[in-house]
Amino acid sequence: MRVLPLMNAHKKVIGKKSTLSFPPIFCLLFLCVSIIYVLGLIMVYSTTSAEVMDMELNKSTHQALIKQLMYAAIGLSLAGGIAKIGYRNLISFSPWLLGVFSFLLFITLIPGIGREVNGSRRWLAILGLSLQPSEFVKYIIPAYFIHYYLKFSGKAFTFYTFLKLVGTIAVPMLLILVEPNNGTTAVIAMSVLVLCILMKISWRYWALPLLACLCVGGAFAYHLSYVSARLKVYLNPELDLKGKGHQPYQAKIAAGSGKLLGRGPGNSMQKLSYLPEAQNDYIAAIYAEEFGFIGVCILITLYLSIACLGFYIANASSSLEGFYFCAVITFLITFQAFLNLGVVSGLLPSTGLNLPWFSQGGSSLVANILGLGIILNISQHVKRHFGDFSTIT
């Protein structure tokens, strides 16, 4: 059982300079992420270049690959800055960040300002690049939750206090839900629930708001035609093969075609206009087709390794802020990864979530690399040396 004094953890000096060192256990985690990213680059190039040639589009077959490399460079630069600033400062600034990104989420919904793609208004065009604020809010809301909770160290954390906290984070979550972006909303809600459990907040506090959210969310979803359509497609995709059922059905064909060893790199058939937008949410289906069951097992092992290493770093953190933040970031990334793989395999209905560090995407890639930068900073402030891989207590 982890025991840390709350008062001492919260009274750590904010703003202490951190050196950009790389602990061995973080290097292992970074290696796993790098392998996932390189495999993702291969698949992004494989799917997008095939689309360009198959549809005879007037653009370079390397365009998506170059963009993915550019976003990774931006993410690494910002992650280095985050690691230098320090996770405690980031948590301290979280109320301001939450306000700024809530405003960005709001203006994203305004026609003419927010960019609509496939019926969802989630993006802002800034300096020729697309920004998806919800990808960053996934990390800001947990940071704000930690900040607010630790303000009450040594004080009574009442039900009323908890409701004020939930009411504040509900605003950006509702804005994300309206975009609509149910998958991201669900991931954020689960991360908040995980924090409640880690913080040992009484279930009497969060059970009622959770039940209310489920009822309101269910009622809201029931009246959205696209949600009910997705559920029908999930239960029986064959009923709408020319519409909503086309993508999940073709994804299953792609994944099944790979068998044990796959068709080989670049040899996918489903990427040739059979599986639309394969480079995004369903890129794992093309990966399974080209690299087979063995390749999928390797990918799952990498994500499980990231989960184990991330939680180990969280447990070794010298402060409660670091423990909570590292644990919830690790959960966010791995939970989203397995949701995506569940959708591709047909076990779950479509969520609109991509595969972290693997799928094509600018904001998601940058945000997830920033999460890696936060974990790096936390790994630099630990209560024991990482050379000791003894049993976690």
The major pleated sheet works out as:
3 strands, antiparallel
Number of helices: 13
Alpha-beta classification: mainly alpha
Number of domains: 1
One letter per element, helices H and strands E, the order comes to HHHHEEEHHHHHHHHH
The averaged pLDDT comes out at 85
Total E-strand runs: 3
The amount of helix comes to 55-70%
What's the end-to-end separation, in Å? 6 Å
Poorly predicted runs are 1-18, 387-393
Coarse shape:
globular
Radius of gyration: 21 Å
Strand order of the largest sheet: 1-2-3
Q: Please state roughly what percent of the residues sit in beta strands, choosing from under 5%, 5-15%, 15-25%, 25-35%, 35-45% or over 45%.
A: under 5%
How is the secondary structure organized here?
Elements: H1 6-10, H2 24-54, H3 63-85, H4 87-108, E1 114-117, E2 120-126, E3 129-131, H5 133-150, H6 159-178, H7 182-198, H8 203-222, H9 225-235, H10 246-257, H11 283-316, H12 320-345, H13 363-379
Antiparallel strand pairs: 1-2, 2-3
Helix pairs in contact: 2-3, 2-11, 3-13, 4-5, 4-6, 5-6, 5-7, 5-12, 5-13, 6-7, 6-8, 7-12, 10-11, 11-12, 12-13
Describe this entry's structure for a reader.
By secondary structure, this protein is mainly alpha-helical. It has one domain. The chain has 13 helices and three strands. A three-stranded antiparallel β-sheet has the order 1-2-3. A hairpin with a 2-residue loop joins strand 1 and strand 2. The termini are close together.
What labels describe this entry?
mainly alpha; 65% helix; 393 residues; 4% strand; three-stranded antiparallel β-sheet; globular; 13 helices; disordered C terminus
